[in-house]
Amino acid sequence: MKTVKQMIQETEMSKAYYQAVFGIEKEGLRVNDSGQLAVTDHSKKFGNRTYHPYIQTDYSESQLELITPPLNSIQESYNWLTALHDVVLQTLPEDEAIWPISMPMVLPNEKDISVAKLDNKADVLYRETLTRKYGKKKQMISGVHYNFELDSQLILRLYESQTEYTTLTSFKSMIYLKLAKNFLRYRWLLTYLLGASPIVDESFFTSQELPKKYVRSIRSSHYGYVNQSEVSVSFETIEDYVQSLQNMVAKGFLSEEKEFYSAVRFRGTKDAEELLTKGISYLELRSFDLDPFDSAGMSKGTMEFVHLFCLYMIWMDETATMKEIEIGEEMSQLTAMENPVSVSQFQEEGLELLKQMENMIHLTTDSEAASRCLQEVRNQLKNPTLTIAARMVQEIEEKGSYIEFALELAKQYKDEATKRPYNLRGFDYLEMSTQLLIFDALQKGVQVEVLDSQDQFLKLTMGQHVEFVKNGNMTAKDSYIAPLIMENKTVTKKILDSAGFHVPAGEEYTTIDEAKAAFWRYKNKSVVVKPKSTNYGLGISIFKQAPVKNDYEQAIEIAFKEDIAVLVEEYISGTEYRFFVLDGKVSAILLRIPANVVGDGQKTIKELVQDKNKDPLRGEEKHRSPLEKIALGEIEQLMLKGQGYTIESIPEKDKRVYLRENSNISTGGDSIDVTDEIDESYKKAAIRMTETIGAKISGIDLIIPDPTIPSENEQHGYTVIEANFNPAMHMHAYVYKGKGRRLTMEVLNMLFPELNEDVSSTGKTH
Amino acid sequence: MKTVKQMIQETEMSKAYYQAVFGIEKEGLRVNDSGQLAVTDHSKKFGNRTYHPYIQTDYSESQLELITPPLNSIQESYNWLTALHDVVLQTLPEDEAIWPISMPMVLPNEKDISVAKLDNKADVLYRETLTRKYGKKKQMISGVHYNFELDSQLILRLYESQTEYTTLTSFKSMIYLKLAKNFLRYRWLLTYLLGASPIVDESFFTSQELPKKYVRSIRSSHYGYVNQSEVSVSFETIEDYVQSLQNMVAKGFLSEEKEFYSAVRFRGTKDAEELLTKGISYLELRSFDLDPFDSAGMSKGTMEFVHLFCLYMIWMDETATMKEIEIGEEMSQLTAMENPVSVSQFQEEGLELLKQMENMIHLTTDSEAASRCLQEVRNQLKNPTLTIAARMVQEIEEKGSYIEFALELAKQYKDEATKRPYNLRGFDYLEMSTQLLIFDALQKGVQVEVLDSQDQFLKLTMGQHVEFVKNGNMTAKDSYIAPLIMENKTVTKKILDSAGFHVPAGEEYTTIDEAKAAFWRYKNKSVVVKPKSTNYGLGISIFKQAPVKNDYEQAIEIAFKEDIAVLVEEYISGTEYRFFVLDGKVSAILLRIPANVVGDGQKTIKELVQDKNKDPLRGEEKHRSPLEKIALGEIEQLMLKGQGYTIESIPEKDKRVYLRENSNISTGGDSIDVTDEIDESYKKAAIRMTETIGAKISGIDLIIPDPTIPSENEQHGYTVIEANFNPAMHMHAYVYKGKGRRLTMEVLNMLFPELNEDVSSTGKTH
């Protein structure tokens, strides 16, 4: 028979060999400020656990389980895991964090540990069985499960290149069975590298004695989360596996098949029986301790090494026998109990494995990144102080206890996840509004797929209900024509005007002569002359005083240089407000004011700017945060000069000094939420305008001289300047002053009204 | 008191003075092939006369009345009038046209003339009264009514510049009353210029004697459509006018106020009484014969002169007294009865009027166009043979009878209006699909407003129901997200793929390395490598045979020069069909084949191309017709060379020779409607794809090797290549071969389902 190695080389599938699907499940206990188990309920903000695909509770109500969807690359998987941590940590109460290591903190009495409050009766009963059998405390051990599936096209091509296996299913099962067997034989190396539970509080064990010294992994040792000794399942063949597993359940050694805590599980079927017909779809590798040095519980480097390790388990010529598997299990146990700073007793075998893996890489992708990854591992194998467990021991010694060590990290990760709430790490290559919307979807358990990242195109799914979203709020709830109306300023104006709203008087002209001949219409008015499609303000002339004929004609000529159509509009003075209208409501009103500082009588303008720029809402990079740093460039200095200042001037106390004329956020302006301060009449007008256009979502810009005086039909208190489709949402969420408005959540609720139904019926079972 | 002239000059409103609103009503009899009155019913295709704003019947069922909306320029008014003629002439049966002169053809017996079959009882009763009073035949005289309104801002500014009138209403009425009085005094000049009814068949008059010779205007003479002699209404003041008119009705001399056939009517109120409070809004000038030399019944030049004439009637210092009005009426009557080739008996007054008008122009806009217009008129005043009536007489003499003369013109205008049915004259600055949609709306009586011509933005209105349309089929019926999905090829493909439709296998890559590494996926397949956003085919490589590695990698590099993302897709062979899906139906399927000619064994390729290019569907200008002329440029000659031909080769009989590889219509390809020939299974698939995207309208491109073999779920007979938003409609309407499909009418019916309800309930009264 051909070896897998041969098949891959013959079919030139070397690169394809590295294609795989990954899925991570990561458990973690909630911990409070003082390092105790958080015994609060799983937050209702996480929606409904009955279907939540990403944020679940494992055994206990306090034990979070974060689940990534199956993804095509390690980078994506790691991104998702990071994002889920951001969502959870930002949603938890301020005094709660996630315990970053596998072994728990000092636990309360068993009676104070709540089993997860699930709706499904069977899930609750199962947890009761576990409690009886293992005790509550052991169930609190947390870890990472790594789901691994080879590319389906690859499997197909390899299958086609051989003749021994006559069905794709049997071929695929052979591959995965080989992987599983060899994994069990060699997994001691992962225990050595990734073991990260050197110690636990003495109160943890009620019936067993504590290890006397630091070890590599309590969790992976016999102290850990293992089946009772009667449990014995064969990996010889699929048939043996199914039969022996079913036998264990029949004998009552296991309450259910899923109670079998092997380091590898066969996945993709509803039960073992089905493996006989459907075969194995993918593997779940379960032997990983939480890595406290990575906020996600497993580093990207580790994920990559596990991938290479799995590939080598397939690539190698031999397949471990049952006897060898037993030896492998024993080797892992021994490794788990080794002193973290000692050299592995199996170092030689480990180095040989790495050499063979290096060879595999050389014969396939010859990837430098993969070689570097192996080199890292080789260093750790040679120098045990570089392993996670050894590094933990060192830090635990320094801090005085592992509780201190872990709590400090928990707080650090909480802090990192909450300090830039406008960014969702792992998705921060997207626009801010899209990041916020994804955050909300992940929080509520709406499935998210990024269909196109350049286009900010998302697919959101709840059960059978699918919605597509582009740029955060372009959805099926809006009609095709509404944004097209808003995109065309002339059309918008005509429609709003004929519906009786107050728009700036003015007309569109398509010839210079016609525009000049219309001077009589404007000669007593303040006007703006502008190209129909305005770009960066080119070609715009503003006459705050009524123009004289010559100036007007010149302005017309300038504007026509930029466009084939020119608008002449009444100039409106007053303050401009952005009304965000969503689904028949004004969800937010924002006032933007130009970049400014307020004097304290002591600091220079330069210092005041520096202070103001420290606000984390003013990001380091452009367009990555809800506010921008105030610059001190030419324009700002000119603006200061016009007011008699330099950047070294010291403005008197409470004196507001402007550094820009324009109020754009992008040039350092302030955003002020005034939703609750504007008279209802203006909100009603904005809502009616949005209805007139036929839109669900619109950003209506009104100029209002005094928003406390109600607008009346005869005496409009506003002028409507623009109706914007796809209005920005992030700028309302995190404001310089006032209350932030979570508009993305409103979009999500509009798309999925069932989200709100669910919250009110937590009792039902799906 | 200030004169109007002074007001205009003082307020510098000279240019504004030429701003006005125009509306034309034009009557015309339907005539059949043999020059007889068409006694068929008003076509049901014109929708419902109860509300039709544009196409009505006047007195008789055979008497069309075409009505333009109020418009801001003469050019637009003339465009609309032309368009309405196009709509009517294309809708009438093939053997019917519009009689182009005011006096009727030889009429049938009175009993065979149907009074208009209207739903409204009062309208019918009024027509019965007219029949009794004037006889049916006199009611068949047709003419043009010219509605004229000054710019409202102008009136306001002039009002503000004076002190004598204390209400805007009284001021406005003064202006219009002055215009009316002077118009009645001087309208003889218009009778001279525009009189166009020199003769009528002797059967027309039953009780009166015929004029013995050619005259300028029978219609404007005492032979014409005039009130009985008892009718006398004062124009002295508004009050006098209202009182005397009401008096005439009270006395029974008039059956209703609207029976008063003055050359000027005051408009804008529901009855005369209301004039006392609301004042005059605009004037209706009713003294115009149909101009047979213009297909619209009145030329643009005439419209312009009438405008200048009206302005001068306001501008002049004097206002005609009642006595002078009587003189004016007499002068018009005398003029009407003059020999068309004789010099006007009032030539001197006419030349003086023109001189004063010239002066007005000089003092205001100094417009060259206006001066040219006056020069034209001056020529006609000096040389009577240039007048319409004189030119008619000459042609009537040549043809032998006025019936021959008029019938020939009627047929000519019919021909001109029908030979390019894909163009709607007056709106031919718009895209073809938008033209067709406007045509359909005008036909059915849906109100049309072009909100933005660059953007093809229409407002369509029926009663309270408003719909906006951009580019012919972008409407509120479609959702915002559907076109965004279709715009993004990757997203479309992902969505259709995951819904189980057959898309070309392939992936998107964002780095060259990643794309190259994926070579294994494609090395056994025909593939296309292309930049994600394709522009004019740049950067595309097609491998009809599976590529070798080097070529593949080169293709990847070429594609990445054009875009930051590259698609590698399975190459699909077969024929491509465009499925036009609308509202859950496949409305049309089009096959496009490359530019070609079919040999006859005699003609050269060059000659065959010339013949084929004579088809009126292949327009003179690019992109202005449903098909394009086949070129004989470099590309075509190369293509011929590849087949062993030159343009001088003579292909054998029935041999099809292709001149292009691509099947685009824009390069001379043929369009073939195959809607009825494609298996239902493909239509169902296209409909389900459109539903999956969530679209109402989509152009689905399927490649189908054999459309007679049904597509099955397991064995798709198609591959879906693209889903197009805003798919072209005109190319389905007028095809090279097969049945044309009127998709714009389907769009209209989708937007206004009430259009179909109306047709089935012609009996109801609104």
Automatic annotation (TrEMBL), chains A, B:
Keywords: ATP-binding, Glutathione biosynthesis, Ligase, Magnesium, Manganese, Metal-binding, Multifunctional enzyme, Nucleotide-binding. Pathway: Sulfur metabolism; glutathione biosynthesis; glutathione from L-cysteine and L-glutamate: step 1/2; Sulfur metabolism; glutathione biosynthesis; glutathione from L-cysteine and L-glutamate: step 2/2. Residues 1-336 are annotated as: Glutamate--cysteine ligase. It catalyses: L-cysteine + L-glutamate + ATP = gamma-L-glutamyl-L-cysteine + ADP + phosphate + H(+); gamma-L-glutamyl-L-cysteine + glycine + ATP = glutathione + ADP + phosphate + H(+). Its cofactor is Mg(2+); Mn(2+). Its EC number is 6.3.2.2, 6.3.2.3. Residues 493-752 form the ATP-grasp domain. The keyword Transcription does not apply. One of its GO terms (molecular function) is glutathione synthase activity. Pfam families: ATP-grasp_3 (PF02655), ATP-grasp_6 (PF18419), Glu_cys_ligase (PF04262). It is an enzyme of class 6 (ligase). InterPro entries: ATP-grasp, ATP-grasp_PylC-type, ATP_grasp_subdomain_1, Gln_synth/guanido_kin_cat_dom, Glu_cys_ligase, Glut_biosynth, Glut_cys_ligase, GshAB_ATP-grasp. In the N-terminal section; belongs to the glutamate--cysteine ligase type 1 family. Type 2 subfamily. Monomer. Synthesizes glutathione from L-glutamate and L-cysteine via gamma-L-glutamyl-L-cysteine. This is Glutathione biosynthesis bifunctional protein GshAB. It comes from Carnobacterium inhibens. The lineage of its organism: Bacteria, Bacillati, Bacillota, Bacilli, Lactobacillales. The gene is gshAB.
